[in-house]
Amino acid sequence: MEPGSPSSPSAGRTGQNDGPSSHELGSLLTAAGVASVWMEPDGTVVDANDAFVSVTRYDRSELLGTAFSTLVGDDCPAIESLIADDATRKVSTTLPIRTGAETSRSVEIHLERFETENGSARIVGLVNRRATPTESASSSEFTYGRTFQALADALADGIIVLDTNSDIQYANPAVERILGYPPDELVGSSKVTIIPPRLRQTHLDALQRYLETGERKINWTYVELPGQHEAGHEVPLGVSLNEFWYDDDRYFVGLFRDISPRKEAERTLTAKVAQLESIAYLGRHALETRDTDALLENATELIAAALDIECCAIYDSETGGTDDAFQVRSRVGCDDATLETEIQRSSADSLPEATLAAREPIAVESFETDTRVPGSTGVTDHGLTSGVGVPIGPTTDSPGVLAVYSAGEREFADHDIDFLESAATILATAIERQAYERRLNDTVAELEVSNERLEQFAYAASHDLQEPLRMVSSYLQLIESRYADDLDADGEEFIEFAVDGAERMRDMIDGLLEYSRVDSKGAPLEPVDLDVVLEDVLTDLQVMIDQSDAEITAASLPEVQGDAGQLRQVFQNLLSNAIEYSGDGQPRVHIDAERTGSMWRLSVHDEGIGIDAEETSQIFQVFQRLHSRTEHDGTGIGLALCQRIVERHGGEIWVDSQPGAGSTFSFTLQPAETPQRNHCV
Ligand code: ADP
């Protein structure tokens, strides 16, 4: 049966005729997907099948008795005028139907007038439920009323609806704001238009797979995908997807948002984190390493990576081979040929030269057009277009420039410049330290040479003086023995003074000789038991101790790293001084040892005459004495020798004293090194 021209239509419900009743016909038409309505010639609805009820969304009871004109739009012609008389028995047209859901739906309807068996006229309306392609593209087919339309229009997020062929059926106005395409242009086109070409096939394959197997490889709730802007660039999108069925067809709806600002913020954050980590690493490395060249090399690599840049170079303005050129101390990503024009200082301003002159960072977006750096156009021949120069070190006297170069025109962000300045500060400290260490090493070397020369001189002088002195002493003794009878009392006294002077001079020369040989003639340092050393010293001083009735007490002494012979001299000088300068009472001396940190502190305490605070430092100088020889015998070299020996052992010596309250001479020594155990059996 042809739905448009029922051969035996009947509005009767008697079932007397042999054709199907309108009710039966209605069921058949419903099964065929055709919505049908029967009307009086004036358009009053007398019957409607389930399909028509479903299309119009009224209850059947609401439809019956209703004028067809109330179901269609106000602008539509009355049904009597569509099928006026026998001449126009049928017509096919598109009418907007007001549905029971208070929305309007455009339908294609076929109206036909026929006579029933009892001779009365009827009009049947047959509605094609399926939307035509043209209709499917119209937004009204896909909206759920004015609310949706208003929402979709106002929404900042883009909405597109597409069918299973990936053809776009609907796009809201935000789509144009986000991707540049006017919705009118998009509707009817393929969705792949808004997908970057590189991802189109993947999308089509995924859609096909989903339609066939239901398998989803992306999260429909939220997924980040790039969109293709009408202008050609990509736009990062946050997308939510869903699907729905309409009239037995499946559609997909996508809600998407431009996440460029968030992506940009994420990129900035990631860049900042990478830059901060680089600074932290560089700072630590600068503190740990003594190898400045390795540090600079490492720095250029780190900086280039953190800025994702093609070339990074560190120029030295001070140690260049000639006055006319910067020296490239380190570079990465570019060769000498690229930097050739940059290092020439005589030519027009290059980036490093301009940076030094400006005394502040210079960011150049294009070397070709920036008038501050006309000399840097050379690097453009090597594909470098933009860059930044930052002075290394104090702005008034920078030893160099840190420069980065990019292949594309790049607008450097503030945090990029901050990062470069922080890196330059670290490098400046390292370069400055290297220069300082170089100066220090030079000074130490000079001092060592001069010290050696002095030692040689002192040794030569004292050694060579011994010979004539011996001669003076010998001849004085000769005169004394041979001409003693011829000398009067004055003569004898003069000879005595001369002999005494010669002996004193010999003692001083011996002391000086010993002093000059502390370093050169000292034995290697090895573990020394100070208890044994002290015992030997006390034996040597036994006569002095007995004569002065001195009371010497000592704590248990440690093993130290030292030259036993020299340490014996130290104890001997300090103990003999403690007895010598004990004053009128019985000398009481105590030797003590205490561990202080990594060193042993030894002390020799007496209860003697003490020393004025102002004189405590001068007594350690060669030949410096606080008393005349008539008061106390001595050469004034003992404490100077002690100091030299202690310093050779890596320690210090000092005195704490008050006049009349005794003195404590303290010195530090390193503990004995534990010998390595041999584990071999
Ligand atoms: P010397 O004892 O041969 O004069 P030193 O270098 O040993 O030379 O001592 C330098 C000076 O330090 C001594 O002349 C003395 O004035 C002072 N001095 C050294 N030890 C003591 C001490 N224990 N108490 C007071 N004064 C001291």
Automatic annotation (TrEMBL):
This is histidine kinase. Residues 460-673 form the Histidine kinase domain. SUPFAM superfamilies: ATPase domain of HSP90 chaperone/DNA topoisomerase II/histidine kinase (SSF55874), GAF domain-like (SSF55781), Homodimeric domain of signal transducing histidine kinase (SSF47384), PYP-like sensor domain (PAS domain) (SSF55785). It comes from the Archaea. The lineage of its organism: Archaea, Methanobacteriati, Methanobacteriota, Stenosarchaea group, Halobacteria. Its EC number is 2.7.13.3. GO terms for molecular function: phosphorelay sensor kinase activity. Pfam families: GAF_2, HATPase_c, HisKA, PAS, PAS_9. InterPro entries: GAF (IPR003018), GAF-like_dom_sf (IPR029016), HATPase_C_sf (IPR036890), HATPase_dom (IPR003594), His_kinase_dom (IPR005467), HisK_dim/P_dom (IPR003661), HisK_dim/P_sf (IPR036097), PAS (IPR000014). Residues 1-20 have a biased composition (Polar residues). The keyword Kinase applies. GO terms for biological process: regulation of DNA-templated transcription. It is an enzyme of class 2 (transferase). Residues 144-214 form the PAS domain. Keywords: Kinase, Phosphoprotein, Transferase. It catalyses: ATP + protein L-histidine = ADP + protein N-phospho-L-histidine. Residues 1-25, 369-392 are annotated as: Disordered.
